[in-house]
Write a structure and sequence with these properties.
Number of helices: 1
Radius of gyration: 19 Å
Largest sheet: none
Number of strands: 0
Strand content: under 5%
Structural class: mainly alpha
Order of helices and strands: H
Shape: elongated
């Protein structure tokens, strides 16, 4: 049984191999570009949240 079969599934228009050509405007190119930007912003937000949580932990540790 392959428990991680769902990892290979995704939008049929997205080709995971190869970089999109910026001169061609297609659904696959738009999807790849938006996916990269979305996840970059998401990673920055998660990093910021972790830094804030660590700062709160340090402040609480000093005050207690």
């Amino acid at each position: 049984m392959n428990f991680f079969k769902w990892l290979g599934s995704g939008p049929s228009s997205a080709d995971p191999v190869g970089d999109p050509n910026p001169d061609e405007v297609t659904v696959a190119n738009a999807y790849k570009t938006r996916w990269v930007w979305y996840h970059t912003i998401l990673a920055i937000e998660i990093l910021t949240t972790n830094i804030l949580l660590a700062a709160i932990l340090v402040v609480l540790a000093i005050k207690l």
